[in-house]
Amino acid sequence: MGIPTSILVLFALLFLAELELCSTRSNLSCIESEREALVKFKESLTDTSNRLSSWVGEDCCTWNEVGCSNKTGHVLKLDQRIGIPEFLGSLRSLRYLNLSSTGFEGMVPHHLGNLSSLMYLDLGSRTLDYSNIFTVDSLWWASALSSLKYLNLDKVMLREATDWLDAINMLPSLSELSLVDCELGGIPPLSRVNITSLTSLDLQGNNIDSIPLWLSNVSRLVNLRVNYNLFQGSVPDTIGKLTSLTFLDLSMN
Ligand SMILES: *[C@@H]1O[C@H](CO)[C@@H](O)[C@H](O)[C@H]1NC(C)=O
Ligand SMILES: *[C@@H]1O[C@H](CO)[C@@H](O)[C@H](O)[C@H]1NC(C)=O
Ligand SMILES: *[C@@H]1O[C@H](CO)[C@@H](O)[C@H](O)[C@H]1NC(C)=O
Ligand SMILES: *[C@@H]1O[C@H](CO)[C@@H](O)[C@H](O)[C@H]1NC(C)=O
Ligand SMILES: *[C@@H]1O[C@H](CO)[C@@H](O)[C@H](O)[C@H]1NC(C)=O
Ligand SMILES: *[C@@H]1O[C@H](CO)[C@@H](O)[C@H](O)[C@H]1NC(C)=O
């Protein structure tokens, strides 16, 4: 399968990006090897919305969502509206996946749940604006990532994903979890705490107004950030029971 090569080229293209684009480019045609990579990439996608239907013909620089340098003809940018390709889920041995600044956006495909060797998954956004780059409708696929140690979903829209905590509670190896600005709206109850390896939890900016009792069972917790939420009154007893805690941020509540 040519897929891994095309994906590598694609990522190389995406990392090259962020430079100026040609709105007034000349009749220079695109680089053939890059055109081939884009075609392979397109073939690997299920382009249900037909957004890539313009991806035909020789000059890939005229295709929608593709931007080339008007000096060199190199593809400099793929438009941000390209979703995470589902076939990433077939790279079953993948241990590390970081799509945090790669230019993908949209709904996160449930196929990522096939990556059972994954130890690090970073879909978090580090931009300062408030827009959500990724959306998750249900996080249940993540419950299959049994090797996961690190999960960052900062600014991923989880409002619809009401199963987020049940899914995450299926990850006994998880030690770092970051869910900043995910529109969680609260922390659901749990009947049995499985995430006992968790040492770092960041829930900033989620309109949370109370800390559930079950959190005191996450006994190895060292870092807890719950700033920028809606807590009022005294510090809950639950936090006092976290005997390993060395860092606590309750500010801006
Ligand atoms: C493209 O070429 C034009 C003139 O040929 C130049 O003015 C412009 O800066 C170049 N870059 C972009 C992004 O248009
Ligand atoms: C680009 O097109 C213009 C006319 O549209 C032509 O004069 C010029 O020779 C072309 N340049 C190349 C490199 O083909
Ligand atoms: C993912 O990439 C971003 C941007 O390059 C970086 O800041 C972040 O630390 C990476 N995440 C992991 C888990 O390595
Ligand atoms: C991966 O996951 C999706 C959705 O969860 C599933 O439909 C697909 O058959 C799985 N297998 C492979 C090899 O991608
Ligand atoms: C805890 O994890 C086990 C598997 O490790 C799972 O069977 C069980 O449903 C989980 N409990 C909850 C409350 O999610
Ligand atoms: C928390 O730990 C206590 C003592 O081990 C146990 O009895 C209780 O069921 C646990 N609660 C949850 C929600 O896991």
TrEMBL record:
Membrane topology, as annotated, equals: Single-pass type I membrane protein
Work out whether the entry's keyword set contains Transmembrane helix.
yes
Question: Which residues, if any, are the signal sequence?
Answer: 1-24
Q: Give any Gene Ontology cellular component.
A: membrane
Location of this chain's protein in the cell: Membrane
Tell whether Transmembrane helix is among the UniProt keywords: yes
Q: Which residues form the Leucine-rich repeat-containing N-terminal plant-type domain?
A: 32-69
Q: Which residues cross the membrane?
A: none
Keywords in UniProt for this one? Glycoprotein, Leucine-rich repeat, Membrane, Repeat, Signal, Transmembrane, Transmembrane helix
- The principal localisation class reads membrane
Q: What is this protein called?
A: Leucine-rich repeat-containing N-terminal plant-type domain-containing protein
